[in-house]
Amino acid sequence: MRGENLPGQQDKNLRARLYRHLEPAAWDGKGLSPVNRVVTYLILLSVVLAIIDTERTVRASHGGVIFVAELLIFTVFSIEYLARLYAAGEDPRYRGVQGRLRYVVSVWALIDLLALLPFLLSFGGSNSVAFRVIRVLRMLRIAKLGRMTTAWDLLAESIWSRRFELGITTMVAGMLLLVSSTLLYLIEGDLQPESFGSIPRALWWSVATLTTVGYGDVTPMTALGKFAAGLTALAGIGMIAMPAGILAGAFSDVVQKQKSRAGPRRAGSDRSI
C-alpha cells in the first residue's frame, strides 16, 4: 500500500508540478522553467505576427499562414490559462472555489484572459477601424511577459521611492509650460492668431519646445518671441534631464538593494550545499 498513489495524491502531485513550472517564483532552477520559456517565445512570436499582419501585402499573400500560427498560439495560451487556473490551488490564497474566483480576477489572470480575446473577436470582422483595433490589441500580449521578470517590480518600486521628487518635477514642468505659452500668447498672439491666438493654442508650441522635440510647424516671428523661445528651449533641456536623473538614480538604488537582499539567500544556499 505504501507504494500506491491514491487519486487525490496523484492530483495534488500533478498540480504541484504544474505550479512549479508555471509560477516563476516557484521554479527552483536557474532562469525560467522550460514551460515558461516556451510561453515567452510564443508571446514574442505573437507580437511579431501582430505587427506583420498590419501590412496589407503580407496579409494578402500569407494571411492563411498567419491565421494558422495565430490559431496555434491561441490554443497554447488557452491551455496555459486553464493550467494556471488549475495549479493556482497550490497558493493558499487561491484554494477552493472562492480562491479560484479570486485568482480569475487577479491582475495576471485578467491579462492572460485579455490575451485570448482579440483572436476570438477577430471572427466576422472586416477592414473597419474596429477590426484594425482588435488586430492591434494582439500586441498587448507582451504584457504577459511581466510575470516572467522582476523588471516591472523594480521599475514600480523605483518610481514609488522617488514619487515626491517626480511630483515636484511635474509641477515645475507644468508651471514652465504655462509661463512659456502665456508669454508667446502675449508676444505673438496678434501676429499669429492661428498659432498663438490663445494660451491653449500656444500650449502646443510650448510642449514641443520644452520636450526638445521642436517640430518647427509653429515658430515665433518677433525678436522678443524668439528670445522667449530660446529661454524655453534651454529650460526644456533641464526639464528632460531632471526626471531622467531621478529615475536612473532610483533604479540603481533599487537594483543594489535587491542584490544585497539576494546575497544572504545565495550564501545560505551555498552553505547548505
Structural class by SSE content = mainly alpha
**Number of extended strands:** 0
Q: How much is the average pLDDT? A: 83
Cα(first) to Cα(last) distance is 34 Å
What are the secondary-structure elements, in order, as H or E?
HHHHHHHHHHH
Identify the overall geometry: extended
Question: What kind of sheet is the major sheet?
Answer: none
Please tell me how large the radius of gyration is: 27 Å
Beta-strand residue fraction: under 5%
Taking pLDDT < 50 over at least 5 consecutive residues as the criterion, the unreliable ranges are: 266-273
Helix content: over 70%
Count of helix runs: 11
Describe this structure in words.
Helices cover 74% and strands 0% of the residues. It has 273 residues and is mostly helical. Helix 7 (151-161) packs across helix 11 (223-272), helix 8 crosses helix 10 and helix 8 (163-188) runs antiparallel to helix 11. The protein is extended. The model is unreliable at 266-273 (pLDDT under 50).
In short:
The protein has helices at residues 7-22, 34-52, 56-87, 96-104, 107-121, 129-136, 151-161, 163-188, 193-196, 199-210, 223-272. The protein is mainly alpha-helical and 273 residues long.
Highlighted features:
273 residues, mainly alpha, 11 helices, disordered C terminus
Secondary-structure map with pairings?
Layout: H1 7-22, H2 34-52, H3 56-87, H4 96-104, H5 107-121, H6 129-136, H7 151-161, H8 163-188, H9 193-196, H10 199-210, H11 223-272
